[in-house]
Amino acid sequence: MADAGPPRAGHRRSGRQRPGRIARRLALMALFEEEFRPRQALEALDRLAAERGATTSVTEHARGIVAGVLQHRAALDAQIAALAPAIPVSELGKVERTILRSALYEVLYSAATPSGETMADAVSLARTYAGDAARRLVNGVRGSVARSSAGGG
């Protein structure tokens, strides 16, 4: 899949966004930068959080996602390969791969957030930053995650 370019600050809609969604967007942007500047994700997160005036709790949530994705990247990529076998992980667009890694990290390793909320936000981020094909891909992984959870796996 072709990369749609770097994630932008986002289109602010009227109403207040949930802190979890804001944290996921910040984590996505920092991890996307990591694709181009290895070992810089946490530095990028600090800069992005300061630029956007993120609260401490939002920044810490995003930091947990970023650090977790960095720590578990190989296992996350293996899980992505199992859940979306039609496209090799290395051939996924950078935005799609980053969204999937982040969402799966939260679902598999973080008990703090309900998996339904995490995956719904992942689908929304994919639609916003990578287009409809990416949304369908992430939604397919979302379905696979839901089926494996329902099956006790």
Sequence-ordered SSE layout with sheet pairings:
Layout: H1 19-36, H2 41-52, H3 56-83, H4 94-109, H5 115-130, H6 132-150
Given the C-alpha coordinates, what overall shape results? globular
Described by strand count, sense and barrel closure, the largest sheet is:
none
Annotation field: number of helices = 6
**Fraction of residues in helices?**
over 70%
Mean pLDDT: 86
Structural class: mainly alpha
Number of strands: 0
The Rg value, from CA coordinates, equals 14 Å
Provide the low-confidence segments as ranges: 1-15
Distance between the termini: 29 Å
Beta-strand content bin: under 5%
Describe this structure in words.
This protein has helices spanning 19-36, 41-52, 56-83, 94-109, 115-130, 132-150. The termini are far apart. The protein is 71% helix and 0% strand. It is mostly helical and 153 residues long.
Relevant terms:
153 residues, mainly alpha, disordered N terminus
What's this entry about, in short?
The protein is an all-alpha fold and 153 residues long. The protein has helices at residues 19-36, 41-52, 56-83, 94-109, 115-130, 132-150.
